[in-house]
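Final paragraph of the annual report: two paired records, presented back to back.
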Amino acid sequence: MAICVFDIYPDGTTKPADDTALTGDGTYRWWHFDLNDPALTEWLPEHLPAIPAGALIQPETRPRCDAYENGLMLNLRGINLNAGQPADQMVSVRMWVDDDVVITVRMRKVFALEDIRQGIEAGAAPATPAAFVEALVSRLTTRVQEEVMEIAKLAEYYEADLDDDTTPPPKDLPATRRRVIRLRRYLEPQRTALTKLAAVDLPLMPEPDGLRLRELANRTTLAVEELDALRDRLLTVQDDHDLFVARTQARHGYRLSVAAGVFLPLGFLTGLFGVNIGGMPGLDNPMAFAWLCLSMAALALVMLLILKLTRWL
């Protein structure tokens, strides 16, 4: 039923559990489930109170930290490292943490949990439930910071391109802006949840672990503040490119307006002298065409002078 179940002992040794009891004979027992497991909806109400059991099987979640009796209900988000899926489509982990049990439920693979699982199998298990939570939060936060730093490098690249007017707007700029928006959507409530977690007053979260969790909450706050700055920087880059395009279009429109102002009276003259009716002057004069051309050139010069005097040029 579960993806994995481990009993963790005080001396750091671990063993896979071979029964369905909620707790074992170790310091604590870790249950790890897939939300799509149909047996989960039957197992949870049999072993947990209704409120934490319901929180673990909610299809949609947001980061939260709530104490319930002597345990904690936690929902956290992490960077999506699954192949073929966008990193900013963050994966969620639902948790119930008590003195002698840790239950985690995921919908998609959470690599931070897989790291902890590999460590447990290698004999490097978190010694207490509080240490388990700290190890998970640390891994989630580190991956978030790495993602934010990657976006920051892209922002620097976009800003450097602004120095060259011939560089077109980057095609992935809108996608990068959406990445920032989606990340911040989840990290802002996660910052609140981690701050609340660091301040929780329960026996299962002793003071040393609280201090380390406060540091992790601070790192998450820094990531959120960096995303705020990145959002503004990327918006500025977009505005600069839009302004450059608007200026280019205005310059082209200005040139076309000047050309139209010069050639409008010339077009009137050519249209007037192009009518094929009797009485047109110069029909029998071989120099009429030359005089017309000279007159049009003089008119063009007059129009340019007028545009200059009116400060169009």
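The closing record of the year follows.
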Amino acid sequence: MDKFTEKLQSVLIPVSQKISGNKILRGISNGFSAMLPVTMVGAIFTLLANLNIGPYQTLIQSIGLKTLFAIPADYTTNMIALYAVFCIGRAEAKVIGMEAEDAMASGIISLLFFMILIPVVEGTIATSFLGAAGLFTAMIVGVCVPWLHWIFVKNNITIKMPDSVPPVISKSFASMIPAICIGFLAIIVRQLGMKTAAGSVTMFIYGILRAPLMALGNSPFTMLFLLFICNLLWFFGIHGGMVTMPVQSMLYTALTNENLSAYAAGDKLPNIITGGAWFGMGNIGGSGCAIGLCILLFSKSAQYKALRPISTPAGLCAISEPMVFGVPLVLNPIMLVPMLLAPTCTFLLGYLAMRTGLVPYMPGTAVPTGTPVLLSGFLTWADFRGVLLQAVLIVVSTLIYYPFFKMADNQALALEKEENN
């Protein structure tokens, strides 16, 4: 077992380091993370406006709240690409190594570049590309523009002001030459895009990338693979979520926002898998679907009894680190099987429940880390059937973990008795 573990470590650790250290993936991931307040506001108010409970809907419509609740979605979910291009541009600039003021300028120039690319239809900006449809272009622009800006900054191709000029004003002038040059480039790219069959760069990118990325994201095997890699890395003590998060962001952000927009409009939800599946029915209670290890409550050994006050409340709030490092799950051969098997089974059961119509598709509600289980089930599906599904999945996770934890608990108890004698 030790040789097998060492062999896996020699393969996985370098790969995970390359992925987590990739500047493009880090920029995208950090940018989406910075957008969390915006996505949360859009998701919460969309949920408040459209929660499918008859008496509640009657109440908010009668007092005019439904219309008010719908307003934030127009400026968050339906404009998500605007926030994305700025946040990714700024995050990518920071990853490259640019100072805070230059990184802010990169975000603004990225936004400028993106807006120039948006097609105009009959004299009006095609606002659909400010939302989920423009996310692919936003990611590309947000990653590329900071690298172009960095060329100017690194080679000091800027307007230099006297030392007597306040730094804020000086930095603003310093970004003018890069902004003008990159702005001209945006115009050239826009005109080239207009000569394609798609009619614009944004339409071209959307048409090329949407189908394969959507198909990849909607495949259950993609999520299963990411869950497997995430939890296998955790077994070796590597933060699997940090490694897989950039890929998740690229694949599932657009899917999530498409569902949220459709939910707000009262349309059929187009995507069966969204970002909510990760904690909603895969890693319930944190990495490894560790909610199943709340059976620590029934441990007999002193070692595991000591973990109860910390690990059980944390697990119920989807924080698995006390169990990952306390049980431990890291480099624990006994726990490797349930650590990989539990998320696989709970995700597949949840997927089948949605596919067969037992529970609805996920509307795209953003559920922050730390949300208690069952409550996260309600928020993820915006339906009480989501709570029931998650409760069943927690039982499944517990049943999978039980024989392995019982084995570990008995071993610890025997060792404690031997030491006391």
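The longest strand covers residues 120-121. This concludes the annual technical report; the extension proposal builds directly on these records.
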